[in-house]
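Hi there. Long-time user, first ticket. I'm pasting a complex I've been working with (about 720 residues overall). I'd like to know whether the download I got is complete or cut off, because the file seemed smaller than I expected. Thanks.
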Amino acid sequence: MLVPRARGVVRNAPPADDLFRLIHSERDGQLLLHPDVAGLVLAGALLGELVLTGHLTITAAYEARVVSRMPPNDAVCHSVLDHLMRETHPVTIWLPFLAHSVYGQVADRMVRGGHVVRRETRRLLTRRVTYRPADMSNAAWPWARLLNRLNRGDELATSDQLLGGLLQACDWHRTVLQSRDINVTETLRYEADKAPDAIRLLVGLTEAAVRNAVNTAT
Amino acid sequence: MSRSAPASQGSVVLQTLAAGKLGVWPLVFTVLAAAAPLTVVGSGATTGWAVTAVTGIPVAYIAVAIALGLFAVGFVAMARRISHAGAFYTYVTRGLGRPFGVATAFMAVLAYNAMQIGLVGGFGYITAGFLDGHGITVPWWLIAGAGVVLVAVFGVSRIDLNGKVLATLLIAETVVALVLAIAQVTHPAGGTLTYTTLQPAGLLGDEAGTALAIAITGFVGIEGTAVFAEETKDPSRTVARATFIALAMICGLYAFCTWAISVATGPDQVVARATAEGPELTFNLAAPYVGAFIVTIGRLLLITSLFAAMLSFHNTAARYFYSLGREGILARWLGTTAPKSKAPRGGSLTQTGLAVIAVGCYAWFGWDPLTQMFFWLTVLGGFGVLLLMALTSTAVVAYFARLRTGDASGVTSSILTGVLAAVALGWISVQTVFDFNRLLGLAPDDPVARILPALYLAAAVAGLLWAGYLAARRPHVYRVIGDGAAAAIAPLTAVPHPAVPR
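Hi, the file is complete. Here it is re-exported in full:
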């Protein structure tokens, strides 16, 4: 069994890691979103990481264009970039494609980093996998940070604009911000709209993909 | 770096995405669940005879199928060309402009809710009748309420009857309907086969509008094929095939089975018997020849078929609310989702709320669940979908007429069939409006027969006014009406969509 490493305080986690924390229960590590939706927003977050590291840009025609072929530091981003370099598609195709696999990849990254512990429980017919956080305060940090900044009216960093936008895309922001206060929601919307074009496009396209997932027949 | 061809061969990405998509038959079964064959044959048509006293319903099914076939050509062709081809209002927006798009959306919300609530009434009444036959007496509204609750749970937790369950139920329904029909045809009244109810002459009299409106109600749901275009393996072929297969299957089934009933009773007796026996008629006619087992199975399948249709229209209505909420056309709350199940929660709860209020009103005021709820409301829903189809045909013509200069394949045929469909569906709509009192079984001067169709006019006017308000006060919402999921990127695309007239 994997034993979580002592990690100390984690503050500058990549957006996909923060999102992973936010969509899992802090208490028992259970996934709180529908797997399809979780896959889509995590795919958006990984593409966002590549945009933030300067590897990728999103054109006005929604195409994901690779601008730097320097290998990213992170293995998961590397594998996503490999896909992006091999074929050319609009983001509307990439999101559902990546959504198939990214959940497991980000989860593995979290496990490797010692942030969560994977636990598998078997019941009568079902198998349930949970990712219990190794450190409660690290797990709570993303929403505490977002909520605090929004309440104070501070400007959000670009990575938080991405994170906030993705939370709105999956309609999870109200739960995360634990707030019925319309002002917090509106501030988040306002802040997310100030993000650079590529990030805003990515967030918008992720929201569109989630909406399609809600409206499907299957 | 190798660039992929647009076709899926050679592209890992496109092949992976195609793997989980719908083929022709799952699509056919999905849309036929909404059409609910046994419900139409077993209770739609018989109630139609009883309420309207118009005998030519079987031939009307064939005529309507032809009109819908024409409609489907342009509809499917347009679905292929526009992205986010979802509901009717996407087509109307792209073809006729945003104000008409909003008007169409409002009409569609009314139509699908009416359809669903009508089915709830039928479910309550017919299930109560079935239980009564087994010595259990339960008021219809209690069963209808239970049905609404069950549909609500399914809706919010997004439990869809999956393809295999639907396919099994549908095949069983079809087999039972055919067995009943064959028993009826082989035992005609007076010993001779009659074709009176299949004579095209039945469509020329002043009863035509009524018969056609009843018939079109039975087909509502098959427009769903295009809604799922983006989920099919090959949108250009799967959707077209599924649409025409579904259309041909239910046209044949409806026409044959309802004709069989009229043969077994004799065309001159069918109205009297339908009035006396209601939804039991088709079972009573066949019972002496097929054995009690088949009849019991048939009655059970009638109930499951009603439930599948209720759920299907619940989902359609919920998705309309959801899309309108998400696009910001109506309250944003309607666009909320249930995170765990990715169900359109706001829309689903709203639809359930409407159904609960309707069942409550009918129970409180003691209105008749079979004629005034099931028949009136489903016919009202069917009439609404008829109007939507007529509008959509017009939109298809307008869309392709503007497109003529570019990519020309299939444009002329789409325009031609679109014009024919618009004329045919428009003519049926006009006939129906004039005949609405007969359709509802009311006296010519009854205000209800004026009020019900006028609801659509009210919805359309409200939609146009609302579009005007949005254009003036919330231009960022107005700009992306009918863009479907693309509305999420609304604030980023300052220029209006090139394909949308102002």
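A couple of notes from our side: The first helix of chain A runs from residue 15 to 22. Chain A touches chain B through 39 residues (CB under 8 Å).
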